[in-house]
């Protein structure tokens, strides 16, 4: 039996809120041996990320013990904790927010090497190149800024930073949410290499197949409570889901009752000003239809939708709704024309983290709640928020709670509420369930289906094949900035989607 590296004993983390004491983590205990991986799962908001932060004292635990090699982390002073941090690292769920946009990758990676004196100063660049090679990033990444690289690449840089100090223990919080299939495989290779060196890992993920593949044991949480820990070999996906949500999910996707009608939204010959982006794109969406958009990384799906919403410039093309030409040069134009867009990265371009739920819900429709043209009607805003909290089952202590304190699934529901307040005709949803657990995904799917049933036109980008097939009336496939074909939802499968997604010129 392997030697225990980390012990978590009766860990609790409570937050004071206006609605009272929030039990984010309530009496959690588990242990990890050297060279082992513990999968940590649970619905959004159950306390998984809070556990990770409390272990590293990024959140001060309310009570409990965290023993690393027998040393109680909760008892250390600041200097002692700083010295121990070399042994304990975390890769955050949102890589964009944890990387300094004003630094290049070289500066980001050199900082921990300098602070913890991992190598002599004259060997820092060599060490950085070694680590970049380990995460399969090219050497020229040293001189790129986080703002100039994609979400998957940011995640790999975050992983590289965690590896700089040769840690004994790493927390990986949703590490593959932005990674391609090839990058996921590269990450698993890294994890296995680390395990062979005796590194213990906590792997937090909503992706059950990954959890079962990479974990030795799986700890399951529900509403801040510890449900139990099981050997991964004794579990399957259905069992995990049942224990996680406290009920059986017989279907991953809801029954669909939407009936697509006439074509209402049309895009013709839409082309970016960037010759390497989307070009000559034409498609239509019917009233009450869910149009899935598939494609590999780099297919320019997000760029296309941002162009339609006025976030990117286009050189030519037409957008029509109900036969009427729309001129969209900025998001304000799109909003006025009844178009809403849920962006891919909710933390970077969706939520306003320092504002409350009420502010985030109402900010796109403030004109509706003005009194005398100058003052906001707080009572109407509160009613709007409470109606959406009830309708979308948003878990929050209060409307005044900061949105950044909510789980990913509840943040996404708040963003949907923001657009519902405007009563749009066309919803563009870019990766609406990314980083969300299976239970919350189902709730989002139900919302999407209900919107379609109400006659809203839905355009949904997703990198999950199952999601596209399970939710779409039709699927539009893109490759290298072009539309390569359409597939009826009932005829779609991974094979015919991939065939169209790989039609490179």
- The CATH architecture assignment of the largest domain turns out to be 3-Layer(aba) Sandwich
The mean pLDDT is: 87
Please report the total strand number as a whole number.
22
N-to-C CA distance: 55 Å
- What is the count of helical runs? 18
CATH class of the largest domain, anyone? Alpha Beta
Brief digest:
The protein has helices at 48-55, 78-84, 95-98, 105-115, 124-134, 151-163, 181-196, 208-214, 237-245, 301-308, 331-336, 346-349, 357-362, 378-391, 408-420, 438-453, 465-471, 494-501, and strands at 4-17, 20-33, 37-41, 63-68, 71-72, 88-91, 169-173, 200-204, 217-222, 225-231, 263-272, 281-286, 290-294, 314-321, 324-326, 339-342, 370-371, 375-376, 426-430, 457-461, 474-479, 482-488. The chain is an alpha/beta fold. The protein is globular.
Q: How is this structure best described in words?
A:
There is one protein chain. The longest helix is centred in the middle third of the chain and has 16 residues. 33% of the residues lie in helices and 26% in strands. The mean pLDDT is 87. The strands form 5 sheets. It has a 6-stranded mixed sheet with strand order 6-7-8-3-9-10, sandwiched between helices. Strands 16-19-20-13-21-22 form a 6-stranded mixed sheet, sandwiched between helices. It has 18 helices and 22 strands. It has 3 domains: 136 residues, Rossmann fold (3-Layer(aba) Sandwich), CATH 3.40.50.300; 170 residues, Rossmann fold, CATH 3.40.50.300; 80 residues, no CATH class.
């Amino acid at each position: 039996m392997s030697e225990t590296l980390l012990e978590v004993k009766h860990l609790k983390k409570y937050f004071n809120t206006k609605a009272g004491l929030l039990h984010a983590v309530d009496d959690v205990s588990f242990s990890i041996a050297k060279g082992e991986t513990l999968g940590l799962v649970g619905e959004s908001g159950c306390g998984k990320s809070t556990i990770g932060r409390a272990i590293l004292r990024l959140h001060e635990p309310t009570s409990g013990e965290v023993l690393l090699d027998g040393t109680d982390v909760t008892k250390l002073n600041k200097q002692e904790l700083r010295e121990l941090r070399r042994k304990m690292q975390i890769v955050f769920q949102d890589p964009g927010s944890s990387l300094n946009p004003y630094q290049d990758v070289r500066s980001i990676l050199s900082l921990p090497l300098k602070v913890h004196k991992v190598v002599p100063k004259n060997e820092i660049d060599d060490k950085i190149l070694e680590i970049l090679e380990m995460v399969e990033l090219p050497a020229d990444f040293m001189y790129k800024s986080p703002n100039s690289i994609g979400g998957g690449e940011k995640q790999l840089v975050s992983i590289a930073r965690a590896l700089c100090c040769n840690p004994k223990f790493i927390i990986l919080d949703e590490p593959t949410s932005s990674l391609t299939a090839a990058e996921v495989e590269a990450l698993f290779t890294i994890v296995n290499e680390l395990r062979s060196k005796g590194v213990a890992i906590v792997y937090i993920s909503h992706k059950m197949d990954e959890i079962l593949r990479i974990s030795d044991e799986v700890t399951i949480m529900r509403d801040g409570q510890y449900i139990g820990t099981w050997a991964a070999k004794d579990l399957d996906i259905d069992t995990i889901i049942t224990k996680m949500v406290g009920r059986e999910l017989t279907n991953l996707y809801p029954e669909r009752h939407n009936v697509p009608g006439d074509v209402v939204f049309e895009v013709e010959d839409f082309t970016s000003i960037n010759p390497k982006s989307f070009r000559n794109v034409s498609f239509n969406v019917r009233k009450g239809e869910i149009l899935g958009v598939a494609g590999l990384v780099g297919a320019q799906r997000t760029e296309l939708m941002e162009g339609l919403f006025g976030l990117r410039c286009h050189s030519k093309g037409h957008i029509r709704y109900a036969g009427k030409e729309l001129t969209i040069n900025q998001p304000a134009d799109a909003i006025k024309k009844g178009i809403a867009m849920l962006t891919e990265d909710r933390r970077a371009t969706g939520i306003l983290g320092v504002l409350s739920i009420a502010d985030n819900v109402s900010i796109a429709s403030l004109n509706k709640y003005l009194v005398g043209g100058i003052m906001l009607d707080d009572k109407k805003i509160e009613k709007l928020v409470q109606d959406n909290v009830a309708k979308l089952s948003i878990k929050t202590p209060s409307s005044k709670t900061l949105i950044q304190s909510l789980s990913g699934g509840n943040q996404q529901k708040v963003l949907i509420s923001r657009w519902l307040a405007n009563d749009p005709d066309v919803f563009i949803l870019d990766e609406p369930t990314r980083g969300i657990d299976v239970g919350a995904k189902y709730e989002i799917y139900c919302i999407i289906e209900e919107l379609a049933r109400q006659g809203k036109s839905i355009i949904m980008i997703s990198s999950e094949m199952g999601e596209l097939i399970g939710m779409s009336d039709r699927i539009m496939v893109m490759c290298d900035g072009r539309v390569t074909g359409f597939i009826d939802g009932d005829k779609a499968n991974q094979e015919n989607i991939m065939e169209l997604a790989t039609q490179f010129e």
